[in-house]
Amino acid sequence: MKTWALRGDTTSYVVGVPDHGQWAQLVAWGPHAVAEGPSVVAPVGTEHFLPRADVEPLEYAVRGVRYAAPVDLVVSGPDGSDEFRPQFAGARERDDELQLEFVDVIRLVLHYRMAGDVVERWVAVHNDGTDQLTLHRHDSAGFVVPTGTTVKYLWGEWNSEFQQAEVTLERGRFTIGSAQGITGHSYSPFLAVDGPTAYGVQLAWSGSWEMSADVDTTGLLRIQAGRVSSSVGIRLAPGETWVSPKAVGACSAEGTDGLARVFHDYERSLSRGLTPKVLYNSWFATEFDIRAEHQLELARRAASIGVETFVVDDGWFVGRSDDTGGLGDWDVDPAKFPDGLDTFIGQLKEIGLDFGLWVEPESVSPTSELAAKHPEWILRTPGRDPVLIRNQLLLDLSRDDVADFIWTTLDRLLSSYRISYLKWDANRPRLDAGDQRRDLDGRVVANLYAILDRLRAEHPDVYVEGCAGGGARVDLGMAARVDTLWPSDNTAPLDRLRIQQGFRTGFAPHLMSSWVTDAVGTHDGRERSLDFRFHVAMAGVLGIGADLSRWSDEQLATAARHIEQYQGIRDLVADSKVYGLSAGVQYVGTTRSVVFLWETGDGNVRGTLPTRPQRVPLVQLDPAKNYRVGDEVHPGSYLLQVGVRWDGSTDSNCLVVEALD
After folding, report:
1. pLDDT band at 603, cuts 50/70/90?
2. Quick count: other Cβ atoms within 10 Å of Cβ 87?
3. Interatomic CA distance for residues 226 and 27, integer angstroms
4. 397 — phi, psi (to 5°)?
5. 310: which residues sit within 8 A by CB, 6+ positions away?
6. Cβ–Cβ under 8 Å, residues 233 and 214
């Protein structure tokens, strides 16, 4: 067998092609010492009823090579056959990249790229024949997981995203996905396998998708990840090439907490590394009742507590007095900004604030001028009325003229006004089938990505937040193209903390936009202090969304204190490694750590009962050094073994731990 090893920072991924050249298979994946030893995934014994390919740890299974076990690629030709048997034709190696080529009528290229301890995988399918072919199933990759059968995943719904759950598969199959034309609230494109070495797979796709974990009869687990095919498949004409989105695999010898850190490092490598500014968003204070003078009043209060960016949310444009109109007509409403938006922005600048704006460019209101002028731009299934959700329809972003309109609209706004922050929202799924013969899902997402890429290239100073009715478009495809993501519309303290804990299992803190509001919990309505709310939000990208006109002087002073502290630690929160603690999290930098502690139970948060202080041991400190924690100084060995003191008089805490020598 010919083998190739992709070597990461602490882990290796080894793939091989047997001498017969019929497939590629996993040889080893794990920490260097494990991956360099004998393979733990190769089957032993003799198969008696099925072909050998059905029990081997295949990297990418083609129908016609594998039959009974799950396959990753199914292609049919004009004769109705769906069996192909591509043979190994060669390999190309360059730095941390590998390509393995297999040839039949189709030419299948398996792509690998090692980035840190993450292996990116994707495939290209070339039609080298003379007839049109149809792709019926077209996964990005199949990841064989060497150990473990307990699968962790993230599920949810609107206002309850990123809930953690797990299932143990003795044998059989577990599948999650989205048929919504968007990543969706229901599941995240993320699966992890727990164990001494934890493994995880994510899919970089913002349309419809599917991920499956399958444990075969030998007890070996394999994860498939890819786009969902339409009912008619993807047509591939002679000479054409189809390229899958990337599937990303990672492993860590530090369990699922360490696995999260591997994914965080990878996501930071995709980031522009911009320092997030503290924003105020006026939505919860005003909703659609936008009046320039009232907005300016809120802005003055926001500036007084240290806010740096003021964001006007939905309702700033013509025809938008509620959610039944206006989408698509992206012109400033003169009734709401009688002196013009540029004058309002200038007034913000005078008080030291940058300006941000909300948009939802993929949607259109049925009563808008755009809908009347271009009815052909509305996504619909021929002969059917389009599906109306949240009083809005979708533009058909698979059309290049629609993509041009969206880009031109955004470019006009960003070129006409001094906008430094753009909140891009998407408040409904894409359910209309349209014409499935043209790979609707693929074209929509490709055009979306192209616009976001162009936005970053031509307006590099604009900080972009991705939002989708809460956290319905959180995935690696978006993480590579926006600066931060909105995990949920639920900003209540205990609910939000749970959402953020799930979010961090797969996504880095710099992607976690989080606001302080006055919201009451959807699921857990127990009261928590304003300090608690700030400490939850400061663990990500801090924003304020409360109605500041209703806050007391004491609340404003509390806010100013927390904002000042956050501004001193935000780069550390965004760039450091995150470790879970018994009562919170620790963000570990080179010489400093930030520790957030939260009381999530029914503990002594009011100090009305006798109790003893908690001790929360810290991690990743030098036992031989001394550290300052607030007004105290302790050896690292003490903080590692005994921990920081938390006396229960507060329901949360934020501690900065600094090395003194």
Report:
1. low
2. 14
3. 22
4. -70, -5
5. 279, 280, 282, 295, 298, 299, 302, 303, 348, 353, 354, 355, 356
6. no
Are 394 and 328 spatial neighbours (Cβ–Cβ below 8 Å)? Answer: no
CB 603 within 8 A of CB 583: no
DSSP secondary structure of 278-329: PEEE-HHHHTT---HHHHHHHHHHHHHTT--EEEE-TT-BTT-SSTTS-TT-
C-beta of residue 560 within 8 angstroms of C-beta of residue 552: no
- 387 in Cβ contact with 396 (< 8 Å): no
Amino acid at 519: A
How do residues 190-225 score in pLDDT, each as one tens digit? 999 998 899 999 999 999 999 999 999 999 999 999
CB 286 within 8 A of CB 548: no
Q: Using CA atoms, how far apart are residues 535 and 580, in angstroms rounded to an integer?
A: 15
Rg of the Cα atoms in the chain: 26
How far is it, in rounded angstroms, from Cα 375 to Cα 398? 15
The per-residue DSSP string of 407-436 comes to: HHHHHHHHHHS---EEEE---S-------G
User: Is the separation of the CB atoms in 171 and 142 below 8 Å?
Assistant: no
Reported as a single tens digit per residue, the pLDDT across 282-309 is 999 999 999 999 999 999 999 999 999 9
Phi, psi of 494 (to 5 degrees): -75, -40
pTM (predicted TM-score): 0.97
Please state the φ and ψ torsions of residue 528, each to the nearest 5 degrees: -140, 160
Given the DSSP bridges, would you call strands 209-215 and 172-178 parallel, antiparallel or unpaired? antiparallel
Report which of 612, 611, 615, 613 is spatially closest to residue 595, judged by C-alpha positions.
615
